[in-house]
Design a protein that fits this description.
The chain has six helices and 15 strands. It is an alpha/beta fold. The chain has two domains: about 180 residues, FAD/NAD(P)-binding domain; about 100 residues, FAD/NAD(P)-binding domain (3-Layer(bba) Sandwich), CATH 3.50.50.60. The strands form three sheets. Strands 1, 2, 3, 4, 5, 6 and 15 form a seven-stranded mixed β-sheet that branches. Strands 7-14-8-9-10 form a five-stranded parallel β-sheet, covered by helices on one side. Helix 1 packs parallel to helix 2. It is globular and about 60 Å long.
Length: about 325
């Protein structure tokens, strides 16, 4: 496995992760970006940016990310759309486990952002493992011929609803916003799927049941309350908390739940780094996150080559 390992495996395709990949690849390190959904991050959902240095006029966050992504790929970085479910940071090489297989790296970078959820819906923790899940790829098969729900508002929720629809007889996609934030072609797939019903502007108040999930109590856009019968529900909502659940307690976190780092963005585990909003140490600005990715890439180059000083690259 070590012979097949990348020099760096980067988890997250936001500005910090992409910049890290760009600089790593330009330094002739083999790098791969594992990105759950290119359109689901904080920057990707930003409609207009007017103050990014070097970019005149306005640009959407999605377009800016695409530019950085293609720069990284042009320098030789690999890009894979994959959801990381767990990591092993103690092995050599380190491992990121996804629904599509395992990826091995001499170093690992956590760049997963801070759109995680700190608060839960009533009944969510009570029925976790008894009808409440966060991984459709992991648990969709349990709902073959049954009715299940997906709660979310972005590209991830739409894709997961389509995957769940391969197994479940009926899928309810419950979106708390007035629209789903996803590419038009993906929305067309959801709309045309015969066994997916989309509920827009509907908020989940409570997950109900006795021994297992029996449904969700919801409130629609007009304030009307009802219970939607379900055999299970996948909670894919976003929030403002650092996304660290896949780490399984392997890295030291701050009391606020952020990944703890030093000045080179190294964690307490040698060869593991964290950049961007998941560290919670900077104002949430794309240019700052990008710079953090660059600093980490330079530190990784030093770590892999065994040099005592970081090589300066002004170009």
């Amino acid at each position: 496995m070590a012979n097949d390992a990348y020099d760096v495996v980067i988890i997250g395709g936001g500005p910090a992760g992409l910049a890290c990949a760009l600089y790593a690849a330009r330094a002739k390190l083999s790098a791969i970006i594992l990105d759950r959904a290119p359109g689901a991050g904080a920057l990707a959902s930003t409609g207009k940016i007017e103050n990014y240095p070097g970019v005149r006029g306005s640009v959407s966050g999605a377009d800016l990310l695409e530019t950085i992504r293609m720069q990284a790929i042009d320098f030789g970085a690999h890009y894979c759309k994959a959801s990381v479910m767990a990591v092993d940071v103690t092995s050599d090489p380190k491992v990121a486990y996804t629904s599509d297989g395992a990826y091995y790296g001499r170093t690992l970078v956590v760049a997963t952002g801070s759109l995680g959820r700190a608060q839960r819906v009533d009944g969510e923790e009570e029925f976790l493992g008894r009808g409440v899940s966060y991984c459709v790829t992991c648990d969709a098969a349990f709902y073959s011929g049954r009715t299940a729900g997906v709660v979310g508002h972005n590209e991830i929720a739409a894709e997961e609803a389509l995957f769940l629809a391969r197994f479940a007889s009926n899928v309810h996609l419950i979106c708390p916003k007035s629209h789903l934030s996803a590419p038009a072609e993906l929305l067309d797939e959801v709309t045309s799927a015969p066994n997916i019903v989309t509920h827009l502007g509907v908020k989940v108040r409570e997950i109900v049941g006795e021994q297992a999930v029996a449904g969700v109590a919801v409130t629609d856009a007009n304030g009307a309350e009802s219970v939607l019968p379900l055999d299970g529900v996948f909670m894919l909502l976003t929030g403002t908390a650092p996304i660290t659940n896949f780490l399984g307690g392997t890295l030291h976190l701050t009391p606020e739940g952020c990944v703890a780092i030093d000045r080179n963005y190294a964690t307490d585990v040698p060869g593991v780094y964290a950049v961007g909003d998941v560290t919670c140490i900077h104002p949430k600005q794309a240019i700052i996150a990008t710079a953090e990715g660059v600093i980490a890439a330079l530190a990784i180059d030093k770590y892999i080559s065994g040099r005592e000083r970081v090589r300066v690259d002004y170009m």
